[in-house]
User: Fold these one by one.
Assistant:
Number 1:
Amino acid sequence: MRIAVIGTGYVGLVSGVCFSEYGFRVTCIDNDGDKIAKLQQEIMPIFEPGLEALVAKNRKAGRLSFSTDLAQAVREADAVLIAVGTPADAITGLPDLAYLHAAVEEVAHAIDHYVLVVIKSTVPVGTNRHVAQMIANIAPDADFDVASNPEFLREGVAIEDFMSPDRIVAGVDSRRAKDGMTRLYEPVALNGAQMFFTTYESAEVIKYAANSLLAARIAFIDEIADFCEKTGANIRDVSKGVGMDQRIGNHFLKPGPGYGGSCFPKDTLALKSMARDAGAPISIVEAAISSNDTRKIRMAEKIIAAARGDVRGKTIAILGLTFKPGTDDMREAASLVIVPKLIETGASIRAYDPQGMKEAAKLIPGNVTWCKDAYEAMQGADALVILTEWNEFRSLDLQKVRGLLKTPLVVDLRNIYKRQDMMRHGFHYVSVGRQDVIPGQPWIADLNIDDEKAA
C-alpha cells in the first residue's frame, strides 16, 4: 500500500514517517519548497524526540520520500492523507479551511484510479461530507472514498502515540472506506490499538470533545489550586486523592500557568463557535476558555506579588518558554503572556529554554537576554521563575542556584521541587496550590505526605 501525505507540519510529518516505519511506501508532500529541500537533507522543521532518526532510517530503506509534486504522489498512492493546517479564524474562532480546500481540489484533479482520501486535519462538523461532495463535483468520474481520521498525538511523545495509540477513530460512509482504513491501520492494530468506526460527524465531534474535556480538566484543577492556596490545602494531595477515583483518573490534574499548544486553545474556540452556531452553546467549554485566558495573566501577577509587588528595575530569570517540555512549539504558550507582562511592568528578563528560544525570540519583544543554559539565566537575577517543566530543570544544583541569584526567590509554576528542599537551602519558594516557604517563617515540613517525598 502506497501512501501520500499532504502537509509536512506536525501531524503530517509524524504520521508519514511512522507509516513508513511500519513498512509502507510513503511520500510526504508540501508546497513549501524550502521545507521539502531541508527534509530531503534530513533537517527537521520541528523538534520531536526520535523523529530525525526515523526519517534517516526510512529514507535509507527507500520507504520514505519528500516532494512538492502533489499530482504525481496522488497518482502513485492508494491512500492520500490530508494533514494541512486549519488555523483558527481571528474573529470567529472557527478553523480556516482554505488550505484544506486547496489540497482537496488538487487531489480531485489528480485522481486517476481508486484512492482513499483520509482527512487528518482538525475540521468542523460536516467537513468530511463536504469534501466528498467537493471531489465528486470537481471530478465526477473519480473513484474514491473519504474517511475522517482525527489525530490525537501529543507533542514530545508523538511517535509513541502513533505506534501505540489509545484508539484509532475512523469516520466512514461506505464498506469500502472501512476496509481501506482497516488495511491502512492493520500494523498499528496488530500492535494492540483498537479501531473505532463511526460516522463522519461523530468522528469530527470526538476530536473536539476530547480536547475540550482535557482543557476543561486543566482549567478546573488550576482554579482548585487557587482555592487550596487560600484554604491551606495542598494541591498535590488534592489532585492525588481526586485522581485515585477510578471514575476520574489522574491525568491532566496537575496545575500550572494554563494550557497552550496547537490543539487545546484552537479546538475549544472552534467548539464554542460551532456549538453557538448550532444553537447548543456549551457553557463549560466557554468557561474553560475564559479561565485559561485569565490564568496566564494571574500567573504574571503572582510573580509580581512574590517580588513584593514591584518588578521595576528587577531582573527575572525565566526557565522554560515552550507550552510544554519535549517540543519547540511556542503556540499559545503561557510565556507569551507572562513574559511580556513582566517586561511591561518594568522587569528585565534573562531566559533559557532547551528548544524554544529561536521561535520565542521572534514572538517576545522587549528587554530579554537569551541565555545558553539555566545557570547563565540565573546570574544576578532578583527572582527565578520556572514556566516549563523540562527534565533538566528538575535537578538543578540548589546551592549553586542560591549563589547565583541576587535574591533567593523562586517561583515554581510547575511544582517540580519539594518544599523541604527549598526551605533547607534558604529560598523564598512560591509554588502553585501549596503554602509558600519563606526563610525564618514557621512551616510544617515533616508531614507524612507523599507529594513532599516524591515531588
Note: The two ends are 48 Å apart (CA to CA).
Number 2:
Amino acid sequence: MDREIDLGERNRRKWRTMAQWLLVLALLVAGLMALRWAIEPGVDRSDVRIATVERGTVVASISATGQVVPGDEQIISSLFVSEVTEVVARAGDTVTAGDLLLRLDARALKSTIRDLNEQLALKDNQRHSAQLALERSLNEAQGRRDLLEIDLLSRKARHQRLSTLADKGAISAGDLQEAELDVRRTQAELKQLSRSIDNQQATAEADLERISLEASILSNQLREQQRTLDSAEVRAPRDGVVTWVLDQPGAPVTSGLQLARVADLSRYRVEAQVSDFYAPRLRQGLQAKVTAGNRMLSAEVDAILPTVEGGSMTLLIELDDPAAEGLRPQLRVDVEVVTGRAENALSIVNGPAIGEGGRQFVYRINNGEAVRTQVDLGVASRNSVQILDGLAEGDQVIISDMRDYQHLEIINLE
C-alpha cells in the first residue's frame, strides 16, 4: 500500500532538481563563452607593442664591423728561397724610398749568376766559331765556283770554235757533240755547286740563329737573376712607416713570403666584414657611415672582394676624410652601408611582426580589434620599414611577435 511523500522530502527533491538544472545551465554558458573565445580569442593590450604609421624618411642600411687600415700600404715579398741574414729596420720606423730594411742570403744566387755568365761566354764563342767556319766554307765554295765558271767559258769557246769548223766540214759531228756535252756538264756542275752553297749557308745561318736564341735566353735569365740578386737587399719602395717586418735573423724565407710592409700613415681606409647574405644588396659606390670612437665619418664602398670566408665578405671603404683625426691602424669601427632611401614615405617602427620587405600580413587596430591586413613593405632599416600599400598614415599596428595568432582574421583587444 503506497504512502504519501512527506512535504519536506518533496521540497528537497524540488531543490535538488533545480540545482541540477542550474548546474547544466552554468556549464552551457561556460561552454558558449569558451566557444566564443576559441572563435574570437583576445589578447591583453598591455601584452603587445603597438606602433603608429607615420610619414618621414626611411634609410635602409646594413651593419658591419671593420678596422682601419693604411690607405696606401705596399707589401714587399721575397723573389727567391733564402734566409734573413740582417735586420736593419723595425716596425714603427720612419723610412724614405730606398732605405735598407733587411738583407737576405744571396750566395746561391751569386753562384747561379757565375754559371750563367760562363754559359753565355761559351755561347758567344760558339757563335764566333760558327761564323768563322761559315765564312771559310763559303770562301772555299766560291773559289770552286769561280774555277767552274772559268771552265765553262773555256768550254763554250771551244764549242764555238768546233761549231765553226763543223760548218766547214773540218771536224766530225762526234767532236762537236762532245764539246757541247762538256759545256752542259760544266753548267750542271755550276748549278749544283750554287745550290750546295745556298744550302750550306742556310744551314749555317740556322745554327747561328739557334746559338743566338740560346744566348738571348741565357741573357734574359742572367738579367732576371741579377734583378733577384738586387732584391736580396730589401729596401723601402716609398716614403712612409714600416708597419711590419720579418725581424728574425736566420728565419727561412720562401718565394712569395712577405718580408715587410711600408705604409703611408697620413691616409686611411676601412676594411669591413659583412655577411654574404647581403651580397645581392651590395654594390660599388654605396654610401656608408663609419663610427670611430665618438666620431661619425662619411664614406663610400670602393670595392667588394669576390672571396667569401666563413660566410663573410670583405668591403673596402674609402673615407671622405682619409686623414681624419683619431684614426690609426687596427682601430675597430662600426660601419653602416646605406642600401636604400625613401623620402616622405609612410613608415612604421620595425619589430618582430614586421619583415624586411615584400608582401606580408600584419594586425591593424580597428575599434578595439586587431584585424589581419595585407601590406606591401619597401625599404627597411633597423628602426623602421617603408609602407608601400595596405596602411594609411595614423593607422596603428601590432609590431610584437604574432606568430601564435597568424591563422586568425580578427583578434579582440582586452
Note: Helices lie at 7-39, 107-167, 173-230.
Number 3:
Amino acid sequence: MATTVVMPQMGYDMREGTVVKWRKREGEPVARGEVIADIQTDKATVEFEAYAAGILRKIVAQEGVPVPVGQLIAVITAPDEPLPANLPSPGTPAPAAAAAPTSAAAVSAPVAPQAASAGEVRASPIARRIARERGIDLTTVTGTGPGGRIVEKDVEDFTAASSAAPPRQASAADQPAAAPMPVGAQRVELSRMRQAIARVTVDSKREAPHFYVSADIDMTRAMSLRRDINEHLAAERRVSVNDFIIKACAIALGRHAKFNAFFRGDHLQMNADINIGIAIALPAGLMVPGINACQSKSLVQIADASKDLVARANSGALRNDEYSNTTFSISNLGPFDVDSFAAIIFPPHAAVLAVGRVKEQPVVREGQLAVAQIMKATLSVDHRVADGAEAAQFLVEIRKLLETPLSLLA
C-alpha cells in the first residue's frame, strides 16, 4: 500500500520546514530507516529517514521551498505499485490520516481519501496541539482550511472570540518594537534560530508554571573517578563532567519517571525511553538535541554519543529523532566559569537541570574543615507535573549518584 511522507514536526514550535536536498531521486529504492532528505528547520538541518520501504515514487516538495508541517512532501510505493490517483495537489495539506506527527516515531501514513469520514474532525497537528493545551473542543471550531480543515488561525480566532478563554496576549517576542530607533542606534535582524528561541522561551514561561530547587553537589569523588577512567581511554574518548551528569540523570529519571513525562492537558504522557537533550551553544543560537535511550547506555557509551552529537550539531548533520524526541534536558554553563543559574524548561519537557562549574571550596566534614570540589545544580520544574517535595527528592537522587560515582558504573 502506498505511503505518504509528510513534513514532520521536528520540534515544539516548528511551523514549516524546507527540504534542502533530496538524497534519493524519483524511482529509486528506499530502505526503512534510510536517509532520504535533509530538512532545514528554524534551528538545524536534520537528516530525514524513511519509515517505510519501497520506491520513492513521487517527490512533491521541491528543494529550497518552505513546506508547512503536515503537508505532503513525497510518496513511497511498493515496487510494482502505481502512484495513487487521490493525492492532494502541491500546496495543500496531506490527507488527515497522514497528518504530521509530533515526534519522529511515525512520519508516514497510508494514502487515504481526502474526504473525512462521518464525525471526523479534520485539523492540522498545530491546531490540535493548541486546542488540547487550551481545552478547546475542536468540534465547536469552524475550519477555513482546504476541505474545511481546522488550521492554527481558526483555533486562535476561536480563542479570541470565546468569553471562556481570553485572547492570547502578544508578547515582545511576537512583535517588532513600534518605537522609532534613536539616532545612532543600529537595527540587527534576528536569525531564524534566534526567532525560534524567542518563541519557545516565551511559550514555555507563559504556559508552564516554573519553580526551582537547588543543591550543592560534592563532585570530589566523581572528579577522582573521572581521572582514573580517562587514564585508560584514548584522548578522543575521554569522559567529561557532563557525561557523569547525563548518566546520573538517566538513572534518577528511571526512578522518578514523572520528570521524564510530558504534560498533556488532562493527563501525563509517561515516556518509555529516557532521551536526554544537551543544550549546545552554536554561533546562531541555542539548540537541544538529544542522546536517545540513555537508560541502556554505559557512562563511556554516553561519552561517545555526546561527542558525536555535539560534532554533528555543529556540522548540521543531526537525525530527526535526535532533534525531536528528547524527554529531559541538561544545560551546563560550567565551561564558561558560571557558578549557578536557572534554565527555562524546553517544551514539552517537565524539567531541566542547570549546572555550573566544579569549584574548589571549603566544607565541613565531621567537624573538620576540608576542601571539596563543589558543583551547584538547579532544577527547573513544571508545577503542573510535579510538586516541590517530588522535585527535591529527584534532585537529591541525582546528588547521591554523583557523590557515590561508582554507582554510575554498575
Note: The two ends are 46 Å apart (CA to CA).
